[in-house]
Design goal:
heterotrimer; A alpha+beta (294); B alpha+beta (762); C alpha+beta (165); B: 762 residues; globular; C: 165 residues
């Protein structure tokens, strides 16, 4: 029995590259219609459903060092091909950026996390994903490399629309850097009222640097409630807030988060419901972050 | 081994080779016969059987819900690499005469002829050397349609002047409607006396009238459907595939292809789950037709969500219930009026009335002065609707058991107490006039309540809680606890007819041949147990195997909860007959339906829930199921039927919706049609109320279509208890609860009357 | 492309299109124990181990298995006999179509897992429509207990929060 190709035979059987260096990868990606993959879950899915017919597949799994996790004088440096499972379980990620550890631990199921990667997830840019709001709130930066050199982008610069990124066809995400200021708390909450393993109806990530009970530098990001995950700059109003003022300010920020939402009606919820849930979960995430409870 | 090794003789059975008796053994005792083979990947299912030289079929499906077919242009497809042929209704009709097909009502063509009636209806088939070649070419077939008015909901379909789905449905072979019925009626089932019911309700102290809705759902078996057919010498055809009722399929394939029944041979193969969804005859008959046309084996394997979008689904329902009681809470009368959406073809429904008899059961468990049930099934231009585990009952019992709780609230009586007062007891006459020698409704209801968690504590292990992302602590103002109960009564009929054979081996082992596939229920293992018990031998000396339709006379197929009773009675007779021959075999037995009265089984469920008042999220913390049983031949298999049913019931209550809209199925695969995972499933508690009187020589009561039925009502009743909000539309999604809470005012109080969660049951 | 890997402990070579899935590659080679289900990575029927990681072979491009150590259900009697025995003894199956994936997933589960919530979370991606999961969870817990008895516990630091060894 012959093995069926997943892609249309009329497209020709693509070439499978397994480059050992980034330069080899760039060369392979120079071909029109070449597609990069790391864990391959997104690419495998799209190809299998006939939505992608690449001329070449460029597998990044053989490039040494691309999957490592390191701490370089403060910020976390995550290799683009580090698996979500490794991010979920690495104690350094858990300590420096619990929101990221929680987000990575929530994606899909055991098998997805075992092979899916941070870089691959970001390049896919599905608005229902868990990583983007967490990384946005954490003020992460993405390192992008290509034949024309390297550049660094914020998450909201990288992901610019529904399932679309700023990446050129021959560029690759090589690392994600997450600042780790001392005393910063972070949390990620996803609302999956139906099946646990499903995409969230909405999700929120919040961070706060807290010293002596007073917050400074508070961030809030929302996922699943618009074409891209988005930051809620009003969160910064919580900076310096203490005592009785906090509850009211948190409610205001939550309302602002809901106002910034641009959700769609779908299987996970109506737009109206998602907007309500943004407010509820933003309030919960901020509350959790500010009080430090787990 | 290819079934085509020696084309000059009849194709050999593709049966598993005789296994050593260790197949069903572990730790020195008999476990289910297929345990080791299934755990090591040895068991071969329909898609695993290699058939050399097989062409692969890819179906071109309608993209319109109701349209005339103007033209089918296959030129581009025929030129695509690896394509052997493109078949349309024209080729089928020319060769086989244009017979329609169906399990009872023969209203469906093998390929759409002139008209399409649902999105997904097969219009043409591409045959290719590889699956991918066929699928890619299928995308190149160009079909031109001229739109017709869609008929997208059952209530609208039955309005006067609605567009017709079928021109003259009364003319179909097997049709149960007449020319004077509404042209979009598939069937109507009426029980009881509507005038009497209305009259009693008019005089009742308390009456509740409400309308309940359930969505279309899917059996959710994990093995996609797959059939392989190959031509036999002298014009016959063999079929191997996901078929739960081989003899019925043989009958219908033969009729549709105008062959004598013995020219069609359905081969044995185990199924990867069924739940009512693998009884369809149209697709396997199409596969057989293709094999005959091609003169070669043809494999038709569904994928890319075709099981969800193009086979058959559970009937969505709108059920109006009116129920009344007197001042003491004694039930007086029940009136049920249900409209089910039957989809574009009635062909997928198997029973003579072409209706869903589960609805009749909602009046079965209580003493009533009067009752009336009306069940209408309508044609619409949507996915055909068929059978799913206790067909009609989950929908009807959700409605009736919810209404009974609403009645209890109106009467100011605890809901479980109201049920207790009217549920059938030994010697009672039911609403149909049947006297049940044994009716253990009270014991079953009491057992469920006694075994439900006394006070579902926050620490009670909730498998869903990973501790990290969800608050593990369920205390706190935003969580509201609630408890709900529901009851279901179902008869187990006397053993049905079947046929079985015994082949004793020289080494002292026994081979019992059955006409039924193992669909997962453990029927083969139960047969082994019953036979070994009857003969007084170690079950490990007994092997059970399914044979092809040529190997035994007849069996009606898996379904209707008849297998355990029928098979155990038959193998017992087999053992007796063998003893009569003095231990000389082989021996064959054909049983006829026994004349003994049915037995009645009760199933009561208690759902404990927590509802997040800020989001509407419903968490089912625990589900306690009490089942009224007689003899249990294989406790583990029995337990899995109860557990599996409860989890399926939970899925129906809270998660599952095919999301049919605009004639399309939007939840088109398992990523969107979410069935419960191991993490979603509630904590299950089961209590067996033992000592019942069953049927047949093995004294059994059916359990396969029991615990999935009352769950939705139990959960809805628990949500009402928790929030004061009554939800009448499944599934009970967080969003639905949220809007209901908002409409009621967020600080909704609980209804007047007793809360089930407070105080111990009487 | 020509794939070179190890499957169930033996050398494995196959000519496959670049876009072939590992699932189709294995089944075409006669290893039909691994099943095709949903084809979108949700049901778990296609679970195999690639370098000790449980993967959805329906989505896993065969080329990514180049040089890898692959194990399927057919190899579980060798690699994880305690998992096979536990599923047989506890009858952790009914129709059996999900069983190969369940057994392989349990084989990849961390040896120290000993509680029901941990098992359910790990196996949440291995669907079952028949059993209600009770016997599967019991089989999984027993498999890990047997494995610990046979091989001893491992350091807590040697497994990840995912529960994988």
């Amino acid at each position: 029995m012959t093995v069926d190709a997943l892609s249309a035979p009329s497209a020709g059987d693509p070439v499978f590259h397994a480059p050992r260096t980034l330069e080899e990868a760039f060369d392979a990606l120079a071909e029109d219609g070449a597609v990069a993959l790391a864990g391959g879950t997104s690419v495998g899915l799209l190809v299998g459903q006939g939505l992608l017919a690449p001329t070449a597949l460029v597998w990044l799994g053989r490039i040494p060092g691309l999957g490592s996790v390191g701490v370089a004088e403060g910020p976390l440096s995550l290799g683009a091909t580090a698996t979500l499972a490794s991010l979920a379980s690495d104690p350094r990620v858990r300590t420096a950026a619990p929101a990221l550890a929680d987000a990575a631990a929530a994606v899909g199921n055991t098998r997805v996390r075992a092979v899916a990667t941070a870089g691959g997830a970001l390049a896919h840019a599905d608005p229902r994903q868990d990583l983007p709001p967490a990384l946005l709130a954490l003020d992460a930066r993405v390192e992008v490399a290509g034949p024309r050199g390297r550049r660094e982008l914020r998450i909201d610069e990288l992901v610019c629309g529904f399932m679309s990124t700023d990446l050129a066809p021959d560029e690759l995400i090589t690392a994600v850097r997450v600042p780790a200021p001392p005393g910063r708390r972070s949390c990620y909450l996803r609302f999956t009222p139906g099946s646990d393993d499903d995409y969230p109806t909405v999700s929120v990530a919040a961070t706060a640097v807290v010293s002596d009970g007073t917050p400074s530098t508070v961030t809030l990001a929302v996922g699943g409630a618009g074409p891209v995950a988005y930051l809620v700059p009003e969160a910064q109003e919580l900076s310096g807030a203490t005592g009785a003022r906090v509850a009211g300010l948190v409610a205001d920020v939550a309302e602002a988060a809901a106002r910034r939402a641009d959700p769609v009606d779908d299987r996970l919820g109506s737009a109206a419901y998602k907007r309500r849930m943004v407010a509820v979960w933003a309030r919960r995430a901020l509350g959790r972050c500010l009080t430090g409870e787990r | 081994m290819s079934p085509l090794e020696a084309p000059e003789r009849a194709a050999p059975q593709v049966a598993a080779p005789a296994r050593p008796s260790s197949a069903g053994t572990a730790a020195g005792r008999a476990v289910r016969v297929d345990a080791r083979d299934k755990a090591t990947g040895v068991t071969r299912y329909s898609a695993d059987v290699e058939v050399e030289g097989a062409l692969h079929a890819a179906v071109v499906r309608s993209t319109r819900s109701h349209a005339d077919i103007v033209s089918v242009d296959a030129r581009a497809a025929l030129e695509a690499p690896g394509v052997t042929a493109v078949v349309t209704a024209a080729e089928i009709d020319a060769r086989f005469g244009g017979e329609l097909c169906g399990r009872r009502v023969r209203d469906m063509p093998l390929l759409a002829s002139g008209k399409v009636r649902f999105i997904g209806e097969p219009v043409a088939v591409v045959l290719g050397e590889t699956r991918r070649a066929a699928e890619d070419a299928a995308a190149l077939v160009d079909v031109e349609y001229r739109g017709l008015p869609p008929v997208l909901d059952a209530l609208g379909a039955l309005e006067p002047g609605a567009a017709r789905v079928h021109e003259e449905p009364w003319r179909y072979d097997g049709a149960v409607v007449t020319e004077s019925d509404h042209p979009n009626l598939q069937s109507e089932l009426v029980e009881g006396d509507q005038d009497a019911a209305r009259s009693v309700l008019a005089g009742a102290a308390h009456v509740v009238k409400a309308r309940y809705r359930t969505p279309s759902g899917h059996q959710g078996y994990l093995e996609p459907q797959c059939w392989t057919a190959w031509p036999l010498p002298a014009g016959g055809v063999a079929l191997l595939g996901t078929v739960k009722a081989p003899y019925r399929l043989r009958e219908q394939t033969a009729r549709t292809l105008r062959l004598p029944p013995e020219a069609v041979e359905v081969q044995p193969v185990p199924l990867g789950g069924d739940f009512g969804g693998k009884g369809g005859v149209v697709d396997p008959t199409l596969c057989a037709a293709l094999a005959i046309l091609a003169g070669r084996p043809v494999r038709l394997a569904l994928r890319a969500g075709e099981d969800f979008t193009a086979t058959d689904a559970r009937h969505p329902a709108v059920v109006e219930v009116e129920v009344g009681c007197d001042d003491e809470g004694r039930l007086l009368a029940l009136r049920v009026d249900a409209v089910f959406d039957g989809g574009a073809y009635a062909a997928v429904k198997p029973i003579p009335s072409v209706n869903l008899h589960g609805i009749a059961e909602c009046a079965l468990g209580y003493r009533l002065d009067a009752f009336s049930i009306r069940s209408r099934i309508a044609y619409t231009t949507t996915l055909p609707k068929g059978h799913m585990r206790a067909p009609g009952a989950p929908q009807a019992v959700f409605a009736v058991e919810s209404a009974i709780d609403e009645l209890a609230a109106a009467a100011g009586i605890p809901a479980h107490e109201l049920r207790r007062r009217s549920v059938l007891r030994d010697g009672d006459r039911d609403a149909y006039g049947h006297v049940w020698e044994e009716a253990r409704g009270v014991q079953t209801l009491d057992a469920a309540l006694e075994h439900a968690p006394r006070d579902p504590a926050p620490g009670d292990p909730a498998p869903v809680d990973a501790g990290m992302l969800r608050p593990g602590d369920l205390s706190g103002a935003r969580w509201r606890r609630g408890r709900g109960v529901a009851l279901y009564a179902r008869p187990t009929a006397a053993p049905a007819s079947t046929s079985v054979r015994l082949v004793p081996e020289a080494d002292g082992r026994f081979v019992v041949e059955l006409p039924l596939p193992e669909t997962g229920t453990g029927s083969h293992s139960v047969a082994r147990e019953a036979f070994a018990d009857a003969l007084g031998v170690d079950p490990r000396l007994v092997e059970v195997r399914q044979v092809s339709t040529g190997g035994l006379p007849y069996d009606p197929g898996v379904g209707a909860s008849r297998v355990t009773a029928g098979v155990t009675a038959a193998v017992r007779q087999l053992a007796d007959r063998w003893r009569e021959t003095g231990g000389v075999g082989p021996v064959e037995v054909e049983t006829s339906a026994a004349g003994e009265p049915p037995a009645l089984s009760f199933c009561a469920q208690v759902a404990d829930v927590a509802v997040d008042a800020e989001t509407g999220e419903v968490r089912v913390l625990a589900l306690t199921t009490a089942v009224d049983v007689a003899a249990v031949l294989r406790p583990t298999a029995h337990r899995m039927q109860v557990d599996g049913g409860a989890v399926m019931g939970y899925g129906f209550a809270c998660l599952e919706d095919l999301l049919e809209a605009d004639g399309q199925v939007w939840a088109a695969n398992l990523a969107e049609f979410r069935i419960p995972t191991a993490a979603d499933a509630p904590v299950l508690r089961t209590v067996l109320v033992e000592g019942g009187r069953g049927v047949g020589p093995c004294n059994v009561k059916a359990v396969g279509e029991l615990s999935n039925v009352p769950t939705a009502a139990a959960v809805a009743n628990a949500v009402a208890d928790a929030t004061g909000c009554r939800l009448r539309h499944l599934p009970l999604t967080a969003e639905r609860v949220y809007w209901a809470l908002e409409e009621a005012g967020a600080a909704a109080t609980t209804p007047a009357g007793h809360r089930l969660g407070e105080g111990a049951p009487a | 492309m020509r794939l070179h890997a190890r499957v169930n402990g033996a050398a494995f070579e196959a000519d496959v299109p670049a876009t072939a899935s590992l699932l189709d590659t294995l089944r075409a080679a006669g290893l039909t124990g691994t099943k095709e289900g949903c084809r979108v990575g949700v049901c778990g029927l296609c679970t195999v181990l690639v370098d000790d990681r449980p993967v959805s072979s329906c989505l896993f491009l065969a080329g990514c298995a180049e040089g890898a150590d692959v194990w399927t259900v057919e190899g579980m009697a060798t690699r994880a006999p305690w998992a096979v025995e536990a599923f047989v003894e506890h009858e952790g199956m009914q129709c059996g179509i999900c069983t190969p994936g369940q057994v392989v997933a349990v084989a990849s589960m961390d040896r120290d897992i000993a509680t029901e919530p941990e098992v359910r979370r790990y196996l949440s991606g291995n669907l079952c429509r028949c059993t209600g999961y009770g016997t599967i969870v019991e089989a999984a817990l027993d498999a890990k207990r047997r494995e610990r008895e046979a091989l001893g516990h491992i350091d807590a630091g040697n497994h990840d929060a995912e529960g994988r060894a």
